[in-house]
């Protein structure tokens, strides 16, 4: 079941995300995010009238996806950045695709014109997910982040809705 996130989901969402914070370079965050911090992030997304979705099976949150404003200037108001995370060990079960499909549908209904996905490179799985939904590469920043004692590139993919 895919639904909007609630405050009851914050611990599960933080646990999913913190795996990536501590063990991967897919996020440039380096410190664990508390449930309280995650609750604030969810509330901000919802206050901006954007979706924060969770995929739940048998009462357990297994994945989530959301969109944030791309930039604060008013001319950017029809552009968002998308994010999707799947619980460790569950990444090949199609949950990311289900969430992305729903997220893109909701964003289109909201009148969003452009969705941008940032990907730490290399990351063939994330690239494949974005391109599956019609995202096209649009930029590549070299050595823009430093995590786990290495310089990391970030690519951006975009999709016009």
Features:
single chain, 161 residues, alpha+beta, 36% strand, globular
What is the overall silhouette? globular
Q: Which strand order spans the largest sheet, edge to edge or round the barrel?
A: 1-2-3-4-5-7-6
The largest β sheet comes out as: 7 strands, mixed
Number of strands: 7
Low-confidence stretches: none
Computed Rg: 15 Å
Structural class: alpha+beta
**String of helices and strands:** EHHEEEHEHEE
Q: Which band does the percent of strand residues land in?
A: 35-45%
Mean pLDDT comes to 96
DSSP helix fraction: 25-40%
For the terminal residues, how far apart are their CA atoms?
24 Å
Number of helices: 4
Provide structural commentary:
With 161 residues, the chain is α+β, with helices and mostly antiparallel strands. It contains four helices and seven strands, in the order βααβββαβαββ. Strands 1-2-3-4-5-7-6 form a seven-stranded mixed β-sheet, sandwiched between helices. The longest helix has 15 residues, at 95-109.
Summarize the structure.
By secondary structure, the protein is an alpha+beta fold. The protein has four helices and seven strands.
């Amino acid at each position: 079941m895919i639904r909007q996130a609630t405050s009851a989901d914050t611990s599960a969402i933080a646990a999913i995300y913190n795996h990536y914070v501590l063990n991967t370079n897919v996020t440039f965050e380096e410190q664990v995010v508390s449930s309280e911090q995650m609750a604030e992030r969810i509330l901000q997304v919802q206050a901006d009238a954007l979706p924060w979705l969770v995929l739940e099976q048998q009462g357990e949150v297994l994945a989530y996806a959301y969109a944030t404003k791309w930039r604060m200037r008013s001319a950017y108001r029809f552009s968002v950045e998308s994010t999707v995370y799947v619980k460790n060990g569950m990444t090949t079960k199609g949950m990311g695709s289900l969430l992305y499909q729903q997220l893109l549908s909701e964003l289109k209904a909201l009148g969003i014109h452009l969705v941008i996905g940032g990907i730490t490179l290399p990351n063939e799985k994330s690239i494949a997910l974005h391109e599956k939904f019609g995202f096209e590469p649009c930029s590549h920043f070299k050595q823009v982040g430093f995590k786990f004692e290495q310089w990391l590139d970030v690519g951006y993919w975009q999709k016009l809705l």
